[in-house]
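Appendix B.2, paired examples.
Example (i):
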Amino acid sequence: MYPLDLVQPMIDELTSLGFQELKTPEAVDSLLHNTAGTVFVVINSVCGCAAGAARPGVALALQQATHRPDVLATVFAGVDIDATRRLREYTLPYPPSSPSMALFKNGRLAHFIERHHIEGYSPEEVAANVLKAFEKHCG
């Protein structure tokens, strides 16, 4: 588990954009079972591709989006361990990866962006992938 003082700025990057933190498995279940419409969840992490592409790409996508998810949420791998584990049950059959992003529609996984779609890509390329998902599922 990472110390909170180390990761808090990384968490703040998303919460400042309107993301709610999911800290427990029950919070994950409640959100995905009780939210009609779309939920976009970012599995945040301390790695360089989260800092260099994932979080900036998400911020860019939200700035440019004409269609947005109804709810924005995040879990932090290595911090919100049980919540992250529970969320990953909802993203099967995709293997665990962080950072990653999941768009749910009416509680079902509609689009998943794995780490290999983030690492090595620019924030603009990540944003384009996110925007394509938003356009298709949030319109």
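Example (ii):
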Amino acid sequence: MPKHAISWFEIPVTDLERAATFYETVLGTAFERMDLGGPTAVFPADEDGVGGALIFDGGEPSLTGPLVYLDTNGELDEALARVANAGGEVLLAKTDAGGHGFYAYIKDTEGNRVALFESP
């Protein structure tokens, strides 16, 4: 049985720097830019955590594709407060996940629907 159901994720973007700046602002963290077969900005994660990246590879941003939940390190309210000023939109306000924490849906600068999550 794998430790995590997900080992890596990629969020397609049409403007890597715009998208990276959006997520850095909303999540309050810095991304590492690198080339992983194309321009990429990597989400920070612990060595044994699940990693992911913003990737410019011709993929199409979507409001209807798979939904990725990004951890806000206990700062969901603060992250949501930064979404609009960073160029995004809150699609679903902070919602109780039935004792498992809280989540909200946002639309990023590229047109992707992404969830923000806060553990209890």
